[in-house]
């Protein structure tokens, strides 16, 4: 009996487990209720490496004694002051409303809706540019170049996420890439079906990597055959 193909193994107990016990937890803006209570100041006391993130994590101790995590911006140092609140200044790392940020400022960890904690520009080296303010909201330019109008009550951190040169150094060898993927519980390498043997995948076999048969398959095909374009309405390029 042959080995079950990858499509058949999906959905059962996973062979890999995400090492979530080593992750540093969720990092987001404070709740709107605590944010509105007033401006609080804190001091950066440490930097941490989070295996689940591409950016370093800063630990900030606030005046009330609480310690919170912050996605570290570029140029932030231990001992620097960080603030959050309605009247916080637009200085490095501070959490403020978009309506209070001047045009042309670079920000990160931007909320999509007020109170969601931050959704945009959280990876290393990313940022969003404040373009303009109008009655409908705040217009921002994403890293992709696209323009987006957000609610002026959304919050953001001032600055650019640290670790911008992460992608400049190549992995060079497969072993290094494997260690990075394993740290996040990802399957690597992921072999394509045409590079397998015919016993391992319907697209396998042959003297060169080609499918060798139509890749369209019925919706009612058995699990070992149900690969490729499953019950497509159309195939080929759009005219």
Structure description:
Strands 5-10-6-7-8-9 form a six-stranded antiparallel β-sheet, with no helix packed on it. The protein has a four-stranded antiparallel β-sheet with strand order 3-2-1-4, with no helix packed on it. Strands 11-12 form a two-stranded parallel ribbon. 8% of the residues lie in helices and 23% in strands. A hairpin with a 2-residue loop joins strand 7 (128-134) and strand 8. The protein is mainly β. The longest helix has 10 residues, at 174-183. It has three helices and twelve strands.
Brief digest:
The chain has helices at 6-9, 32-36, 174-183; strands at residues 40-48, 57-62, 67-71, 81-84, 95-97, 106-108, 128-134, 137-141, 147-150, 155-158, 216-217, 229-230. With 239 residues, the protein is mainly beta. It has a domain at 21-83 and 93-158: Roll (SH3 type barrels).
Specify the helix fraction band: under 10%
Shape: elongated
Biggest sheet statistics: 6 strands, antiparallel
| Termini gap | 44 Å
* Stretches with pLDDT under 50, minimum 5 residues: none
Task: Output the CATH class name of the domain at 21-83 and 93-158.
Answer: Mainly Beta
Got a strand count? 12
- The number of helical segments is 3
* Helix-strand pattern: HHEEEEEEEEEEHEE
Helix-and-strand structural type: mainly beta
- What portion of the residues fall into strands of 2 or more residues? 15-25%
- Rounded average pLDDT: 92
Cross-sheet strand order for the largest sheet: 5-10-6-7-8-9
Query: What's the architecture of the domain at 21-83 and 93-158 in CATH terms?
Result: Roll
CATH topology grouping of the domain at 21-83 and 93-158: SH3 type barrels
Cα-atom radius of gyration: 24 Å
